[in-house]
Write a structure and sequence with these properties.
single chain, alpha+beta, Helix Hairpins, D-amino Acid Aminotransferase, Chain A, domain 1, OB fold (Dihydrolipoamide Acetyltransferase, E2P), five-stranded mixed β-sheet, five-stranded antiparallel β-sheet
C-alpha cells in the first residue's frame, strides 16, 4: 500500500475511533491500539510532510503560540437570549409568539454553561473557530479548538460551506482534577467549570489548551449551502449525522408541556457531565423563526429559563477540620442530608475561622444552605430561633489534627496553617518545594516523581530523600537505571548547597529565599540558628516579631528536630559561605501577579532574590517591575496607571539569562 493510501486509511480509522470514544462514549479499540495507529501516522507524515493536512488527527495538539487573537466578524450573529424566571413569564413568551405567527411547536434543551463559539467548515474541513465576543465580532481561537477531541476536524458528506454554533465546556470530572492539580501546585483555583473553560480556550499557547481537555456540544446551524430544513430539530439530527456532539433536546406542542421537561432538567442537572445554567425554549419551525426575527438584543423566537438558587434548611451535626496540601486548616460542616439542586448534600465548606465567627455557626445549629454557582454547597445563615439550649461557640483547634504540630494564622490573612515539617497532609508539597529550584534544586525530583516515591513507601519526608538508593528508584514504574542514577547524582550534588538554600527549602513559615539568605549570613550555621532566641531573631534584618516567633516555634517542634536530624546524618551542608554572585537586580522591587505557567511564585521570587532583587505583594511607586502571568488583575491595572514596567514570562526569562 502506498504511503498516501495508508495515511488516508489511518486518518479514517483514527477519526472513527475518536468519534466513538469522545462523542458516543463507546470505544471499540484499546487505548494502546489507538496510540499505535497514531504513532504510525505520525511516522508516515514525518517522512512525507507534503501529505500533512490541518484536519489530520496528528494536528490536534499542534499550532504555535500566538501573540494575540485576531478578530473575526461572524457571518451570522451569535445572539444572546432573553431570560425568564417563572412559568408566567414563559406563558407570556408563548402568547407573544402565538399572536405573531400562530400556534407552533417548541424545542427544549439544557442551557450549557460554557463559552459559545462559531465553527466554520469549507468542503468538510474545519478551517476556523471564533468566540462569541459581542455577538458580531469574536476572537479567532482556531488552533485551540483543534485540541478539542470531540470536535470533528473533517466531515464526511458535508456541504460546501457550513457554520455551526456550539458551546465549549469543561466536564465536571476534568474540572475537579484540574483544580486538585492547581491546589497541589499552589496556583489559584478556578471558581467553576465555565471560568476554567473560558480561560483555557483563550490561552495563547494551544498546548496549554490541549492539557485542559475541553469538550464541545453543538446546538445550531448558523449558515449552510445546498441544504434546507423545516425544523430546528431536523438541523440537530443533521449535525448528529455529520458526527457532531449535539445538545439533548425534545419537542413539545405547548409551553405547558415544555414546563415538565424544564423541571426535569432542573431536577436532574447533576446527571449531566456538563454544568447547566438553565433551559432553552425555542420555536421549532425555522420559517416562523424568520417571521419573528430579533430585537436589537435577542431573538424573539427563544428564551432561556433560569433556575433560581435552591435554598433549604438542615442541621449541622458536626464541624470537622481538613488539612490541605498547603497546610491550611479548612473547617467543614457535616450536615443532615438534604436534597439541593439535584443532589444530596451532606457537607458544606465553612472556609475559615472568621467565616464561622461572623455567622456564629455551632454544632447543632439549623442553617440555611444553597449551592454557590450550582456546584459548591455553602452555609448562608443560622436560624437562631432553632438553636438548641446549651450550645457553645465553635473553637478552632490549636494544633494540626493530622500531625499534632502547632498551627499559626497567616500574618494579615485569614488562613490558619499547620507548621508541621513532616505533616502527612502536606507531604507531597513539602517534598516538591524542598527539591525545587527555590529549594535544594534537585533536578528530576518534580511532582510526578515525588508522588511515585511517596506512593511506593520510599519517602515520608524531605529527609528521606538522602537515603534513597538507585536500585529502589530504578524498580519503580517508568523510571529505569539511567533515570535513577541521574536522580541520585542530583540528590548528592544538592548536599553542598549551603545553609541559605537549605533554609529556603525547609518551608519555615515566612522564610523565603531572601529571608533564608539573611538568616544564613547572620547566624552562619544551623546550630547557631537552632540556639537563637526570639530576641536575637528579631534583631535580624527584615525579620519581625511574628516571623521570629514562627521560626522559633518551627525549630522547637519535634517534627523539625527529626527532619534536621536526618539531614545532618545524611551530611547536608548546614554552613553559610558568602558569595557575591550575580546582583543584576540589586535595588529593584518586583511584584508578581496572575498565574505563571513556567514557575511557581516561590521559584520566580527565589530567582529575583538570588539576583539581588526584592519582591513585594503590592504595587506602589517604589515598584520597579511587574511580572504578569495569566489572568492578571488589579495589580496589573494599577501598574499600568502608574507607568510601571510590565513584563511577560518570556521577557523575564530573557532578563535572567
Amino acid at each position: 500500500m502506498e504511503a498516501k493510501d495508508r495515511i488516508e486509511e489511518l486518518r479514517r480509522l483514527l477519526d472513527e475511533a475518536g468519534y466513538k470514544y469522545y462523542v458516543l462514549d463507546a470505544p471499540d479499540i484499546s487505548d494502546h491500539d489507538y496510540d499505535m495507529m497514531l504513532r504510525e501516522l505520525e511516522t508516515l507524515e514525518a517522512r512525507h510532510p507534503e501529505l500533512v493536512t490541518p484536519e489530520s488527527p496528528t494536528q490536534r495538539v499542534g499550532g504555535r503560540a500566538v501573540e494575540a487573537f485576531a478578530e473575526v466578524v461572524h457571518e451570522a450573529p451569535l445572539e444572546s437570549l432573553q431570560d425568564v424566571f417563572s412559568f408566567d413569564e414563559l406563558e407570556a413568551f408563548e402568547q407573544r409568539v402565538t399572536e405573531a405567527v400562530g400556534k407552533t411547536e417548541f424545542d427544549v434543551e439544557p442551557k450549557i454553561d460554557g463559552l459559545s463559539v462559531a465553527l466554520r467548515y469549507e468542503n468538510g474541513v474545519f478551517v476556523q473557530g471564533a468566540t462569541r465576543g459581542n455577538g458580531t465580532v469574536g476572537e479567532d481561537v482556531t488552533e485551540n479548538l483543534r485540541t478539542v477531541r470531540s470536535l470533528p476536524l473533517r466531515l464526511e458528506g458535508a456541504p460546501e460551506h457550513l457554520v455551526v454554533r456550539g458551546e465549549v465546556y469543561m466536564s465536571k470530572k476534568v474540572f475537579r482534577a484540574l483544580n486538585a492539580e492547581r491546589e497541589r501546585d499552589e496556583k489559584p483555583l478556578f471558581a467553576n467549570p465555565r471560568n476554567a473553560a473560558a480561560g483555557s480556550l483563550r490561552q495563547l499557547d494551544p498546548k496549554i489548551a490541549a492539557e485542559r481537555r475541553l469538550d464541545i456540544i453543538c446546538f445550531n446551524i448558523q449558515a449552510v449551502t445546498g441544504r434546507s430544513f423545516d425544523k430546528h430539530s431536523e438541523t440537530l439530527e443533521y449535525l448528529r449525522s455529520l458526527r457532531f456532539p449535539t445538545v439533548p433536546h425534545r419537542e413539545f406542542g405547548s409551553v405547558r408541556e415544555c414546563w415538565e421537561r424544564i423541571r426535569e432538567i432542573g431536577n436532574d442537572r447533576d446527571q449531566f457531565d456538563f454544568d447547566i445554567d438553565g433551559a432553552v425554549i425555542k420555536v421549532n419551525s425555522l420559517a416562523r423563526r424568520a417571521q419573528l426575527g430579533s430585537t436589537a438584543k435577542a431573538p424573539r423566537w427563544a428564551v432561556a429559563f433560569k433556575y433560581p438558587p435552591e435554598k433549604k434548611e438542615t442541621r449541622v451535626t458536626d464541624i470537622v477540620i481538613q488539612v490541605g496540601r498547603t497546610g491550611v486548616l479548612t473547617p467543614k460542616a457535616i450536615l443532615e442530608p438534604v436534597r439541593l439542586a439535584g443532589t444530596t448534600v451532606t457537607n458544606a465548606t465553612l472556609h475559615n475561622q472568621d467565616f464561622i465567627a461572623e455567622r456564629d455557626i455551632r454544632v447543632g445549629d439549623t442553617v440555611l444552605v444553597q449551592k454557590a454557582g450550582e456546584i459548591i454547597p455553602e452555609v448562608l445563615s443560622v436560624n437562631l430561633a432553632k438553636r438548641p439550649a446549651g450550645s457553645a461557640p465553635y473553637e478552632f483547634p490549636k494544633v494540626c489534627p493530622e500531625c499534632g504540630a502547632p498551627v499559626v494564622r497567616d500574618e494579615g490573612g485569614a488562613a490558619i496553617r499547620c507548621q508541621g515539617a513532616e505533616c502527612p497532609a502536606q507531604r507531597l508539597r513539602h517534598i516538591v518545594h524542598f527539591a525545587s529550584r527555590a529549594g535544594m534544586d534537585i533536578e528530576g525530583l518534580g511532582t510526578a516523581v515525588a508522588q511515585l516515591l511517596i506512593d511506593n513507601g520510599l519517602i515520608k519526608s524531605a529527609g528521606d530523600i538522602y537515603f534513597l538508593s538507585a536500585g529502589n528508584i530504578a524498580a519503580l514504574p517508568g523510571m529505569g537505571r539511567k533515570s535513577a542514577d541521574n536522580l541520585i547524582a542530583a540528590i548528592e550534588a544538592s548536599k553542598s548547597g549551603g545553609l541559605a538554600k537549605l533554609l529556603g527549602a525547609l518551608g519555615i513559615p515566612q522564610v523565603g529565599q531572601a529571608a533564608a539568605k539573611v538568616l544564613a549570613r547572620r547566624f552562619g550555621t544551623m546550630e547557631a540558628l537552632e540556639n537563637a532566641t526570639v530576641e536575637e531573631l528579631t534583631e535580624t534584618e527584615d525579620v519581625g516579631p511574628v516571623t521570629a516567633r514562627n521560626i522559633r516555634s518551627w525549630l522547637d517542634s519535634g517534627q523539625a528536630l527529626h527532619l534536621l536530624g536526618l539531614l545532618k546524618k545524611a551530611g547536608v551542608d548546614m554552613t553559610f559561605t558568602d558569595e557575591a554572585g550575580d546582583r543584576r537586580f540589586a535595588g529593584k522591587v518586583f511584584v508578581l501577579t496572575g498565574t505563571l505557567s513556567k514557575y511557581t511564585r516561590d521559584e520566580a521570587s527565589g530567582i529575583i532574590e538570588r539576583l539581588g532583587g526584592k519582591t513585594s505583594s503590592s504595587v506602589s511607586k517604589k515598584t520597579s517591575c511587574v511580572l504578569a502571568g495569566e489572568n492578571a488583575g488589579s495589580k496589573l491595572t494599577k501598574a499600568q496607571s502608574l507607568g510601571i514596567t510590565v513584563i511577560s514570562e518570556d521577557e523575564f526569562e530573557e532578563m535572567i539569562k
